[in-house]
Design goal:
The structure holds two protein chains of two kinds. Chain A is built from 23 helices and eight strands. By secondary structure, chain A is α/β, with parallel strands linked by helices. In chain A, the strands form two sheets. Chain A has a five-stranded parallel sheet with strand order 2-3-4-1-5, with helices on both faces. Chain A folds into three domains: about 100 residues, no CATH class; about 230 residues, Rossmann fold, CATH 3.40.50; about 100 residues, no CATH class. The longest helix of chain A has 23 residues. In chain A, β6 and β7 form a beta hairpin. Chain B is mostly helical. Chain B has one domain. Helices cover about 50% and strands about 10% of the residues of chain B. Chain B has eight helices and four strands; from the N terminus they run ααββααααααββ. The longest helix of chain B has 17 residues. The two termini of chain B are about 35 Å apart. The chains are: A alpha/beta, B mainly alpha. The interface between A and B is medium-sized, with 22 and 25 residues.
Amino acid sequence: MPIDVFHKSCKQLDGGNDRELTNYIVETNSIRALVDFNSQASIAVGLKGIGKSSAYRYLTQVDKNADICIGINADRYVLHLPQRNYGASFFRKQFERDLIFEALREVVNQSDAMRRRLDASLLSEARKTVDSFLEKLKSAGRKIIGFGISIVGIGLTLHKDSPEEPEGLIPEKDISKAFDILTAICKSGVKIRIVIDDPEEVFSLGAGMDINMIGGFCLACLRLSSTIPGLKIIGLLKTHVYHPVNKHEQDLSKYTDPATYLAWSKEELKLLVKDRLSATSTRVDDVFAGSNEDSQLEVLENMIKMVRNGPRDLLRWIDLTLTKSNEQPICTETANLALEDMCQSSFDELARAHSGTHENIELMIKAIFSKKTKTKFTRAALEKHLETLYLKDITFKALQSLEWFQKVSSITIPRLLFETGSISFLWKNQVILPYQKEYTLKNFEKATSIFLTPALIPVIKEQYIRPPAKRSTAR
Amino acid sequence: MAPVQTPITSSDRKIHRVVLISDPNYFKNGISLAREIASRQLNEFSYQRDNKIRYATPLSITKFISYSREIGILDEDLRCTESKDDIKHMDNFQSWLKNQVMVFLETNSASLENIKAATLSLFSDTPYTLPTPVKVHEALKTSISLSSFRMSLKIISALSPKALKFSSRKLVILPDIIKG
């Protein structure tokens, strides 16, 4: 039955492991901006579940716009960076040189194909530079872990007892020479793309996030991509990783739009489902109930209006509904049966994503909205509500012992709620949900009303415990 | 919830007293309120000198009244901006006060992030500059007065010690060691 196959495809919630993904991957507008070598988009940021891993696969496996494409993610590369208290500018320099050498190494690896595109002397210069760098690495030899996998991060990949400081590994003149060679290669028309998924996982071992390292990484991506035409370094970051870095790293403000948000339009989400239907030879009416295609798609459109992070919530909801209804076509009633489960998963995902930086953030969200699940706040009204919670709410007082909570206030919490995708807002008379491209800080600041993201309403409602009724004295 | 165990003479407890006693029906201005507080010889406004317990003068109490107005917990008429029943309990008051102080700093270009950035910038100055409240206040270019800025830091460090640590000890400088 085709619906079985379609249902199975909806269970594939991790784009990184979905073997069939290339059959139904959607080229969204934000992915198009990343693919375009003329666009400034270099740092791509998205909520957990928005399709970052799918974007990674699209950029490294599907799109053929680049002549050389290098993908780096935590599954393929394990790098061991020592925990050191370096500043962001140190990390930027280090990442820049490593990325330059990584690009040159790949040019040399593909020298057969490159021979037709590049001047022989340029290729030979590239080879000499890479050989000399690898020679230096070999001399550092036994101290290096992960050698042979990738040279990205290798300058930092030294044992903690290594007397050799990583910045001393390659002389500055060699770096600038490598930079010039790579620039010349790209100017000859060779397009090179390096994509790094979840850099905080690729480059760090510890559970805590090194903000300076990620800040340095972002600056390296932006700087190299903007100074060498034809070279594009793309970093794919989760929002909860990017936002603290953006607040901390002042040099990022030198770029007008340092981050591109991975986002979906409602049409693109519809396409996500339609493409899966086509790829699994399933008809729309096999999955959605209705007298005609328009009414069948209306069921899907209504689901799209409810989800928080876009594709993952939507596919999970379809999967849960089909499971509950024994693969009967989905109608509003059956979708509602699985709504709470989908919402709970979305809320759990939100809490998990932020547990490292904002422990127990879910308790704060519940406290804010427990009796206000459908309230439309103005920004001022929300701030006033938060002030009152500071004064009266027991959860707010309990959270005071947490470091992150001690650093926020009634005027900074709304932004935190925005960053986590727990609130949606009305902007230009449109409801803006966290997965949409209009979900930006700029638009949020101009929002006419702010409210709990629809996907979280059932979860918060469920958590609200009605105070016990007063006992009647009448006998 | 138990309140944060701050010393009896700490700023949060002084301000708590000011706000509880304040009443626009009885006090027409800050100095009359300050005189009343001084006359009550409260523990919050006491200190020891020459082995004797002394009490703050009305003039020094007006500093806390002005500050309470500045951060918006008392209005111009010396009326508490929240119900006194709600702020009576110390834990409620501390939580509210901490938020009001944070909001006051944030809306005057002196957020914790700005303070951190200013501190780091002073550390990296040549010659190296110690980030004393005066220096940080200068670096922030905030419209908050130095005394209100200092008071805000004291309150935040007492109520949110994980967010900010504030030391008022004199500097001890030894060869190769700098203690703040």
